[in-house]
């Protein structure tokens, strides 16, 4: 395997996006109530993500690791957190885009 151009690793490999964030989300414990992040693990005192279960989305990470939070803190840290009620958008004329 070591002779391969991209040999397999023991842990999932993580690639960075242009903004310096990762393409996966991981749980951050020990900083308040805990939340999910996709910034470099070194920002949170971690040397790597070896052995840490990652998720494809922030919501998936919050559900997997912080569903016990009554405050919903993990979800509140998302760029576009989910709401308890459906959100409605308006058109130019001021009418709703849904019928009721």
Offer a few descriptive terms:
little secondary structure, two-stranded antiparallel ribbon, single chain, 2 helices, about 100 residues, extended
How would you state the average pLDDT, rounded?
A: 78
Shape from CA axes? extended
The termini sit apart by: 60 Å
Strand content: 5-15%
Q: Which series of helices and strands comes N to C?
A: EEHH
- Major beta sheet, specifics? 2 strands, antiparallel
User: Percent range for helical residues?
Assistant: 10-25%
Give Rg in angstroms: 18 Å
Q: SS-based structural class?
A: little secondary structure
- Tally of separate helices: 2
Number of strands: 2
**Strand line-up of the largest beta sheet:** 1-2
Q: Which parts are unreliable, with pLDDT below 50 for 5 consecutive residues or more? A: none
How would you explain this protein's 3D organization?
The protein has helices at residues 58-66, 73-76, and strands at residues 26-28, 35-37. It is largely without helices or strands. A two-stranded antiparallel sheet has the order 1-2.
Topology readout:
Blueprint: E1 26-28, E2 35-37, H1 58-66, H2 73-76
Antiparallel strand pairs: 1-2
Short structural description:
With 100 residues, the chain is low in regular secondary structure. The chain has helices at 58-66, 73-76; strands at 26-28, 35-37.
């Amino acid at each position: 395997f070591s002779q391969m151009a991209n040999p397999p690793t023991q842990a999932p490999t993580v690639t960075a996006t242009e903004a310096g964030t990762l393409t996966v989300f991981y749980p951050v414990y020990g900083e308040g109530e805990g939340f999910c992040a996709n910034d470099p693990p070194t920002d949170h005192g971690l040397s790597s993500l070896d052995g840490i279960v990652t998720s494809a989305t922030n919501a998936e990470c919050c559900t997997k690791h912080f569903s016990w939070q009554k405050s919903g803190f993990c979800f509140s840290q998302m760029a576009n957190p989910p709401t308890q009620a459906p959100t409605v958008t308006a058109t130019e004329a001021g009418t709703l885009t849904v019928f009721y």
